[in-house]
Amino acid sequence: MASIDTQKTKTSNSEDWGDFWSRSAIDACTAQFPDDARKTIADHWRGIFAALPDGISILDVATGRGAVLHLAQNTLPSLNGVSMLGVDQAEIETAALPAGDAAPIVIKGGIDAADLPLPDGAFDLVTSQFGLEYADFHRALGECIRVCRGRFVALVHAADGIVVRQNGAQSGQIGWLMGEIGFTRLLKDHFAAPSRTSAGHMDHALTAIRERARTEENPGMLAKLYNDALELQNLAARYPVAEILNMIDGMEYRMAAHAMRMRALADAGRDANEMQAAAALLEAAGFAAPSLAPERTQSGHLVGWWIDAARTAP
User: Fold this and answer.
1) How far apart are CA 248 and CA 232, in angstroms?
2) How far apart are CA 205 and CA 82, in angstroms?
3) What is the pLDDT tens value at each position of the chain, 314 positions in all?
4) Enclosing H/E stretch for 167
5) What residues does CATH 3.40.50.150 cover in the chain?
6) CA-to-CA distance for 301 and 294, rounded, in angstroms?
7) Helices 241-268 and 220-235: crossing angle, nearest 10°?
8) What's the rounded Cα separation, in Å, for the pair 34 and 38?
9) Residue 34 in 3-state DSSP?
10) The pTM is what?
11) How many other C-beta atoms can be found within 10 angstroms of the C-beta atom of residue 56?
12) Of the options 3.50.50.60, 3.40.50.150, 3.90.180.10, 3.40.47.10, the CATH number for the domain spanning 33-159+269-311
C-alpha cells in the first residue's frame, strides 16, 4: 500500500513544497485531471513548441518539476542552441530530475515568481502551467512581461472551474475528518489499545466516511483514506504498535499537507474578469492582441484559462 510508509515520517502540520515535488511525478499538477483534459493541454503545448526555431530561449515560471519543459524537450524540432530554464519557489534543482534527462533543462528553486532575479528581455518564450497564479498574480505577471522579449503563454486555474471546485472540497473533507470525525485520533486510540469500544468508534467513523463519499463530486480522497484505515488492520498483524502509530502520524502529516495545497489551489483560481485584466496588462506592455481561451473537458467542464500574447516588434 503506497500511501502508508513504514519509515519514520515528519508530523509537521505544514507542507514544504520542495518535499512535495521531491515525492511527486513530473506531471503531478495534471495527474488527476480527466484523460481528455490532460491530452488537450499537452497537445496545446506541443503545438506551440513544434513551431519554434533553433536557438530559442524558454523560461517556465513556477515550473514544479518541469513538466512543460519536458514537453518542449520532446517536441522541439531541434535542440540546437536551445536553452530551457525553469524556476520555482520550492527548493527544486536540476539534480532532482530523473536520471538520463539531458540538457538543456535547468531548474532553479527558491525563486519567487513575483520577484524574478533575471534580466529584462532575456527570454524568447515565457510559459507557466498552473503555477503563476500561486504567487502574487499581477506582480508575477509583471515579472513575466519584464523578462519576455517574445511570446508569453500561460495556463491558469479557473476560479469557477472543476479543478478548483473539487480540490477546494477536498480541503473541506480533510477539515471534517480531522475535526468532527477525529479520524487519526480514533486510529491511534484503536491501534494503541484495541477494544470493543475503540472498534465501535472506528466502525462509526468508517460508516460516516463511506456515507459522505456518496455525496461528493470527487470522492477519491475519502475512498483512499477509508481503504488506508482498513489496510492498517492488516498491517497491525505484522508490525509493532509503535510502527503502526508512526504510520498514522505520517497519514496525518500528509492529510494536513494535502489540505494546505488544496486551499492554495482554491485561492489561486482566477475568474474571467481577472483574466481580462491580465490581458489588458499585457497589451499595455506592448504585447499585441492577447488572446484568452478556456480549457474544458470533453463534457464541457471548465478547467483553466489560456492566455497567449506576443510582444510587438519594435
Assistant:
1) 9
2) 55
3) 333 333 323 323 234 677 777 777 788 778 777 788 889 999 999 999 999 998 999 999 999 989 999 999 999 988 888 999 999 998 876 544 554 445 578 999 999 999 999 999 999 999 999 999 999 999 999 999 999 999 999 999 999 998 888 888 988 999 999 999 999 999 999 999 999 999 999 999 999 999 999 999 889 899 999 999 999 999 999 999 999 999 999 999 889 888 888 888 888 899 999 999 999 999 999 999 899 999 999 889 999 999 999 998 76
4) helix 162-176
5) 33-159+269-311
6) 10
7) 170
8) 6
9) coil
10) 0.82
11) 21
12) 3.40.50.150
Cell representation of residue 2: 503506497
Task: Count CB-CB contacts under 10 A for residue 242.
Answer: 9
H or E, element range at 155: strand 148-157
> Could you tell me the CA-to-CA distances from 2 to 55, 115, 231, 247 in Å, in that order?
42, 37, 11, 12
Residue identified by cell 508569453 is: 152
Q: What pairs with residue 155 in β-bridges?
A: 129, 306
DSSP state of 288: E
